[in-house]
Amino acid sequence: MFTSSEAFSSFSVDDIDKAKRFYGETLGLSVTEGMMGNLEVRLGNGAQLFIYVKPDHVPASFTVLNFMTDDVEKTVDELNARGVTTKIYGDADLADMPPNDEKGIMRDEEDRAQIAWFTDPAANVLAVVAESM
What InterPro entries does its record include (predicted)? Predict the structure, then answer.
């Protein structure tokens, strides 16, 4: 039914201006204002993300967006240099997973699976993930 249909993801924020600055300036994505002041974000693969303001916004308690990278460590360093905190979980928060290091990068035993989580200004959880996962 949807094999030839394009799809997009969406989630809410509590402050559309902060979201626009974060996704556009901090993360360097293409952000345009859409209908009714909402944001349309173009990701590197051409996919679209729709971000809308919701006055009673509650941050998602799960990862809403994953960014693939060939070098998690380098990407985390770049995020940290832009003021983004990537160590948002303590080891107790990830009790069923390998521990994360001082930068917040979790690695499996073979160092193939690497992931680091961070939040947007509305406290939605995002992640940077190794392409080899």
Answer: Glyas_Bleomycin-R_OHBP_Dase (IPR029068), Glyas_Fos-R_dOase_dom (IPR004360), VOC_core (IPR037523)
Residues in the chain: 133
Query: 91 with 99: CB under 8 angstroms?
Result: yes
Q: Estimate to the nearest angstrom the gap between the alpha carbon of 93 and the chain centroid.
A: 18
pLDDT in tens, 50-62: 999 999 999 988 9
41 Cβ contact list (under 8 Å, min separation 6): 23, 29, 30, 31, 48, 49, 50, 51
What pLDDT is stored for residue 133 in this prediction?
55
Q: What is the pTM of this model?
A: 0.89
CA–CA separation, 23 vs 122, rounded Å?
A: 12
- The first and second tokens of residue 83, run together, are 């003021």
